[in-house]
């Protein structure tokens, strides 16, 4: 048995146990914050709103326009504030559109709108394309969940549905409600969050859910000088071409599961310490140069 297979089996078992315990926790979450990176009028956000509104106190805060691939950028820090527009989204649910990014929406909700009574859970999505492998570094959907986790609120980033199969979106949203009620989600600690990637296939072809780790899939980013005349005077324009390198996905990874039409759940955390390396350096000592560099005090 490989090192990858062992955690897959254990985590899948944990998810199954958590799912079976859903009835014990079906009154949680009581209060939910929904957000996304596709904009406040996106179909995926509306589907989540329709699914959660009947079972939880539901708040919706999202960017006023599409802010995909914005990671966890908070524009309010540089701007020292945000403009917010109130919307009526679904069945009396009041939504708030911010003139910023997904992370701005979460900051406004957790440090402004709901500062005195924060939500039990933040759910970001549903993004219309999956966030697999290292896509999490770019995704605004995942970035919103990261910021929520940074502020100590459990979060789930949900991605992946096909506009060719619209019936899948409603079922996906209902499944996310059930996932939110599981012990797996309820026991997330501060700084932890989940990413969930759905295969973009009809409902009947989805083969259940598994908990996995991320697959390595490096990016290819190239910049080329362009004759584009839109650049400001005295400046040159360089066009960006972005692509991913397709590689074979190891077993027990999100890409491996996704290719088998499984819902891929990846546990994540905001803390990016490399604890193994830190422990090694504490024990063995780091080979660091002396200071001052010439050996003389200054």
Tell me what you see in this structure:
The chain is α/β, with parallel strands linked by helices and 298 residues long. It has one domain: Survival protein SurE-like phosphatase/nucleotidase (Stationary-phase Survival Protein Sure Homolog, Chain: A). Helices cover 30% and strands 23% of the residues. The chain contains nine helices and eleven strands. It has helices at residues 5-20, 43-52, 75-79, 102-113, 140-150, 166-180, 183-186, 254-259, 275-284, and strands at residues 31-35, 57-63, 84-90, 93-98, 121-127, 155-159, 192-197, 209-211, 219-226, 237-244, 263-269.
By CATH reckoning, the class would read Alpha Beta
The CATH homologous superfamily name equals Survival protein SurE-like phosphatase/nucleotidase
* Structural class assignment: alpha/beta
Number of domains: 1
* Main sheet strand line-up: 3-4-2-1-5-6-7-11-8
What's the β-strand tally?
11
Taking pLDDT < 50 over at least 5 consecutive residues as the criterion, the unreliable ranges are 1-7, 16-24
CATH fold-level topology: Stationary-phase Survival Protein Sure Homolog, Chain: A
Q: Termini distance?
A: 58 Å
Q: Give the helices and strands as they follow along the chain.
A: HEHEHEEHEHEHHEEEEHEH
Q: Estimate the global geometry from the Cα principal axes.
A: globular
Query: Which radius of gyration do the C-alpha atoms yield?
Result: 21 Å
Overall mean pLDDT: 86
Q: Largest sheet, described in full?
A: 9 strands, mixed
Oligomer: single chain
**CATH architecture assignment name:** 3-Layer(aba) Sandwich
Bin the helical content. Answer: 25-40%
**What fraction strand?**
15-25%
